[in-house]
């Protein structure tokens, strides 16, 4: 587990280096060390190594304690980027020491580091989704598209080399569609692609957390494809320059200890954490909570799990087919020795567990009973309150929404009955069977495609819009 051999490389997306020079914070005799951290503030399943961590100040606190022991003054230079590619460029130039990014960019990071003799190492995970639900394809709210097959011959915006691009390529292949020949794929930054979708210049947008949720929440898009339908894990993680880790292992230890602290804070104070991230990023708190709250789309656990590494290795052929990597062997990329020290004696148990350490819990106030099944656990966030209300099933949540209409509820969350992806109740596709029990009469889905698959296996069920679902809840 400590080390993994992966095959990767970089052909495209290799930015020319200018003025390569290491700034790891000074030599061994320096009394002042600046640690350069690259992060993606709006990629909110990296917040425990970025936005939330920065807001809480835990890394600075760890470095202050370290400095009191070794007589060094430490400073942190936080550098915010929209995607992982520029973080990689800065890391191999020696200008960023620690960076967080998604699984596809991490592979390119690893390959480029070896190619340019500035090797990097994966030292921890931030957030992950075992089925791939962190990536989605969305389309305009009034689009007639109901599944990915309708994109043949159309225009799709994505960030090439990202995990969202990988999801798009894989999902289209399952339908016999070549992403490079059967449609026009535009390589755009997420914000540019979002604007293109709203302007009607593209038919769909394939992006990573939190863009799909934000656009759907704002009423500017609807979900067309749920990445969890691939049933292949996706994750984000933390990479460090190997030279920096060898020169200053205590700083890497401090960073990961701070990440563990931030993860614990996220689990203990989910609403407060969501609002801190929202303040720092401008994202709606309801969107941050969709991904980062209990039972959220992202599971936060810093340990490096075998299932994630196995899926990670499967990403290489996809990147190679897109001509983004070649056959460059990279050994010893994943190293759990640092995060093992940060987590402590419980590391092996935690790394082996696939359970979400922050599930939705509590007592259902309407249907009764403890909320225990993550496949059906639902949640409402009452307006004006710093608490949420849990429910055992989506149908029980609908009963609550019937009693608390309109602006009385800030947001409501339900799990997709097919994939488990957490979604906004009022943006979900709903199905019903009047013959089912009151607590199980309605089932939600992120997409029309997921609903169609589920209905095909459940005779007697039919689609119903959200308003009628609320009205029918009793």
Automatic annotation (TrEMBL):
Chain coiled-coil ranges: none
Endpoints of the signal sequence: 1-24
A Pfam short name: NMT1_2
Keyword terms, alphabetized: Signal
Superkingdom in the source lineage: Bacteria
PANTHER family: ABC TRANSPORTER SUBSTRATE-BINDING PROTEIN (PTHR30024:SF45), ALIPHATIC SULFONATES-BINDING PROTEIN-RELATED (PTHR30024)
Name of the molecule in the record: NitT/TauT family transport system substrate-binding protein
Organism classification: Bacteria, Bacillati, Actinomycetota, Actinomycetes, Kitasatosporales
């Amino acid at each position: 587990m400590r080390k993994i051999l992966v095959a990767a490389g970089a052909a495209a997306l290799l930015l020319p280096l200018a003025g390569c020079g290491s700034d790891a914070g000074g030599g061994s005799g320096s009394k002042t060390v600046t640690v350069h951290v690259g992060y993606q503030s709006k990629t909110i399943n990296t917040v425990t190594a970025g936005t939330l961590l920065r807001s809480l100040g835990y890394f600075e606190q760890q470095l202050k304690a370290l400095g009191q022991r070794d007589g060094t003054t430490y400073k942190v230079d936080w550098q915010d980027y929209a995607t992982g590619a520029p973080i990689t460029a800065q890391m191999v130039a020696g200008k960023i020491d620690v960076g967080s990014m998604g699984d596809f960019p991490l592979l390119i990071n690893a390959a480029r580091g070896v190619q340019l003799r500035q090797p990097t190492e994966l030292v921890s995970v931030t957030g992950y989704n075992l089925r791939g639900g962190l990536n989605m394809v969305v389309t305009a709210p009034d689009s007639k598209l109901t599944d990915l097959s309708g994109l043949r011959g159309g225009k799709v915006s994505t960030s090439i080399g990202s995990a969202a691009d990988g999801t798009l390529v894989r999902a289209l292949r399952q339908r016999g569609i070549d992403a490079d020949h059967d449609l026009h794929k535009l390589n755009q930054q997420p914000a540019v692609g979002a604007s293109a979708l709203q302007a009607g210049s593209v038919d769909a947008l394939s992006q990573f957390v939190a863009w799909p949720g934000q656009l759907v929440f704002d009423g500017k898009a609807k979900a067309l494809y749920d990445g969890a339908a691939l049933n292949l894990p996706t994750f984000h993680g933390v990479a460090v320059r190997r030279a920096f880790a060898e020169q200053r292992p205590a700083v890497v230890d401090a960073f990961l200890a701070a990440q563990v602290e931030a993860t614990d804070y996220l689990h203990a104070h989910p609403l407060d954490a969501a609002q801190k991230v929202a303040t720092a990023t401008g994202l709606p708190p309801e969107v941050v909570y969709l991904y980062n709250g209990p039972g959220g789309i992202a599971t936060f656990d810093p340990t490096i799990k075998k299932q994630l590494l196995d899926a990670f290795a499967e990403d290489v052929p996809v990147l190679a087919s897109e001509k983004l990597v070649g056959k460059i062997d990279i050994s010893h990329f994943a190293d759990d020795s640092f995060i093992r020290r940060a987590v402590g004696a419980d590391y092996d148990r935690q790394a082996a567990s696939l359970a979400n350490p922050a599930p939705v819990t509590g007592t259902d106030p309407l249907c009764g009973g403890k909320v225990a099944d993550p496949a059906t656990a639902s949640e409402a966030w009452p307006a004006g309150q710093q608490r949420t209300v849990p429910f055992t099933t989506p149908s029980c949540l609908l009963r609550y929404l019937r009693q608390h209409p309109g602006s009385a509820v800030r947001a409501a969350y339900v799990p997709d009955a097919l994939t488990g992806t957490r979604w906004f109740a009022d943006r979900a596709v709903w199905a019903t069977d009047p013959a089912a029990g009151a607590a199980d009469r309605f089932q939600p889905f992120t997409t029309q495609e997921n609903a169609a698959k589920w209905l095909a296996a459940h005779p007697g069920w039919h689609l119903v819009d959200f308003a009628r679902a609320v009205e029918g809840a009793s």
